[in-house]
Hints:
- The protein is mainly α.
- It is built from twelve helices and four strands.
- The chain has helices at residues 2-17, 24-34, 41-62, 64-73, 85-98, 114-123, 127-148, 161-176, 182-192, 200-225, 232-253, 258-282, and strands at 78-79, 82-83, 107-109, 112-113.
- The strands form two sheets. Strands 1-2 form a two-stranded antiparallel sheet. A two-stranded antiparallel ribbon has the order 3-4.
- α2 (24-34) packs antiparallel against α7 (127-148).
- The longest helix has 26 residues, at 200-225.
- The mean pLDDT is 83.
Amino acid sequence: MIEYIKIIIAALVCGFMAPLPSSASAHFSLISSAVLLTEDESKLGFYFAVFTLAFSVSVFICLRKIYSKSIKALFVKSTKGENLKVYRNVAKNVFLTLLPTAILFIPVSEGTLLIDYFDKFLTGNGLYLTGIACIINALILVVAHWYAKQENRKLKRVCGTMSALRMSVYQLISFIVPGFSHVSSGATNMLMSDVHPKVIMREVYLYLAPSMFVVNLAKIIRYLIKDTIVDAFSVAIGAAIVMLVSFLVMKLVAKFNPKKVLSFFSIYSALLGIGVILFTFII
């Protein structure tokens, strides 16, 4: 029963933080250490991969109409009363954001991929590095927030091709460095790309979820191949909690001014980073 409670706590934290511009991996590392989730590094990696995959599925559900129309636009030019051109651009941009993730699947030795090597940063002794990454997140958000206040900018309602390419690079860094937030880096990119504040978070989720789904599904398969043993029922409960909580948080975030949200989390990320670094000295 205690193990189930630990999983539920970790899932609640991940589900709440995953849609926000703050590092879910940093919170997972802290909470797993605080509640002694498990000492098995493979299990830790597996749990986080499942939780992150669950978040991406939650995004698919939340933005299902855009994704379905984007897929439809690949085969149909237009439908009655609706031009699908913008959705074809979405499909193209999703493909562009997926390309850099191929780097993670480069073999570095027999039976080992680059994704396995970088994944050790999260499950190993990476708390100190995580704290530094959180502080860098905060600084980047501050710069992006300052840029967004500048005048003479033509705001856009959708992400452009160059923005999608930059997004893909930021996401690759987020996969490699624990503490470097996917949502934070994505929101920074959208601010710097002059995307309208009202749609910033939607655009971030839209292009974040596919690469997050692919990479974490690959991680899960890798862990299963390596015979990582977990309680399937507890993992399923955790995944369901993450999906539900993250879905509700995304709906809640949509009601707030994105600039204020990002401004708040620039301060929060800095404090989190300092807290994580201090925590490494305590443990």
